[in-house]
Specification:
disordered N terminus; mainly alpha
Length: 95
């Protein structure tokens, strides 16, 4: 599990760099950038942001996804499920 986020997520430490960008995109923006899909820091932050957003309304669903995320063989499944609930954009964010 990734520690807290830059947008008010719980945890001891906030994200930095690409992980912070990913967290914001998952939690606030509900968007996934394919141009950053190979950056593990971005993906970890994005997944954490998505899971915290989901957990606000559906805590059981958040726990299910967290359990799956811990199993490295299921990470692609989790990413695909979370992307289905977000806008997927080509390239990288501006700025």
């Amino acid at each position: 599990m990734v520690a807290g986020g830059s947008s008010g997520g719980g945890g001891e430490e906030g994200f930095t760099g690409r992980a912070a960008i990913g967290y914001d995109h998952g939690y606030d923006g509900e968007v996934f950038y394919l141009g950053l899909a190979l950056d593990p820091h971005y993906v970890d932050g994005w997944v954490e942001g998505c899971l915290e957003r989901i957990g606000e309304d559906y805590p059981e669903e958040e726990l299910l996804f967290r359990d799956l995320w811990e199993d490295e063989t299921q990470r692609d499944v989790v990413i695909d499920c979370l992307k289905a609930d977000c806008e997927v954009r080509m390239g990288r964010p501006l700025g």
